[in-house]
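To: structure desk
From: M.T.
Subject: fold request, one chain
Message: Could you run this one when you get a chance? Sequence is below, nothing fancy, just the single chain.
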Amino acid sequence: MDTAQLKARLRLDRQLVLEFFSSIASVLNAKGYLSLQDIDSLRVTIADIQSQRLDDFESIQSQLFRKNENFCQLLTSIYGEEKLYQNILRYTAKSLFIELRATLGAFGNSLIDKSKLFLNRTTIVYQDKKAQEKRLLSSLLIDAAEIVQVCTDSFSKIIIDFDKMLPISIGVEQRAGCTLDQDLYQALGFGAIDSNSLASTSEHLARLATEFVVQTFTTSTFGLIEKLADNKSDEGYLKLKMLEEDLQFETKKLNHSLNVSYYNEPEQWELFRQNFITCLLHMNNRIKKLGMLAVDFVNKKGLENNSDKVIYTEEMKRGIIFELISKGLQCREAKEAAHCLTDYLNHHNLEPDKVITSELENIHQSLSHESLTTLQSLYKKHDLSTVGMTREKNHALKKAGELQKVFKKHIGTSASLIIALLFFIIAGCGVKTAPLSKELDFQPEIPFRSNIFNLQSANPGSKINSYIKMRSYDKLVKIQNKETKH
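Reply: Done. Structure tokens follow.
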């Protein structure tokens, strides 16, 4: 993620923090816990924060505590410092987890689309630069998509936890007719109140779960690439390897963040929260890039024609060795005979049915007709043209349909959330209350304002009315002098 993109996302994060405080202020004002003077002061502070540069050192919480002590002390009294800042973290990080889940869902959906495109395409699976077996490419892609679904399900559990607001810590809600707890979580858009006594550990568990999810995703995705890559010096493979290492590094940074229970000052809490948010942003960006490169790599491999190439798997070699040893042949000689037979067939690109029994003695003296029959039966089992492989295709298509429904649901949820967040950016942020103060204006007196109204009342039909909106004192004086001369 480049600097401009990161700043844009952090600016959005700042708007969310301001939205958190302004929404709480509106509820507290409606309940009569905040005075009109505190509301007006908070509105001015929020407007001042919005006009500041993004890289200003002082955190939002620190400025609010310095300029709006009554409001912040009221919040601290209601929640306690730890619960207050955990609620801020949940409020701002929930959308990022939804976006991460959608990114994984988009990658899984693209894998399924490619599996349908390459439904009958065979590919060669490699291990240590050696061809191991032939597989349907669609089956490999759907297997990888299933692991992606496991990752999205794990993020869904994190989102459920982050959609719960920690309750207030004192008995304010027990007063007659007071529903402060419910009003606060509804105003902030949380789904429920977190009544779990161990809720304070949710953030730590979320970090551990995120590390597990990302490691599972990178391991499965890169495992798929490893199976398809016959040349480890290929440029596409090297780029994927670098991205995989970067993503692993981000997960370690996320998990090794300082424990939130050690933080006492607003700057320390905000530093932890921003590090948490920044790590999630970088992880999301790297997952997108890794997914795009992986799909391009798969597309390149899918266009290769491997239908005529004959591959003998380790299972086939083991079958020949078992047959020879069971007839009393020594282990070393049985292995040698099996390797000689498969190497001969690989070199000439021959199927077992193309070999006659009389040729076996020339390949290795220990081979017999039973050895060739065993190899033929095992080869037929893995033949992609058999009924069994047709059944595998049908099963893969059924799984693909089920997975695609889940992925599209996650993508749709993220799209609606992004639209809502953009609405916050465009609409701005402020305290959700009407200015109820009896004071006409909190701004300092502007010198020319009184002159405007005096001139307007003295000369109703003069040209001064057309210049009132311009708010230019010099031009008003010139017009006044000109009308006096006439």
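Reply (cont.): The mean pLDDT is 75. Let me know if you need anything else for the meeting.
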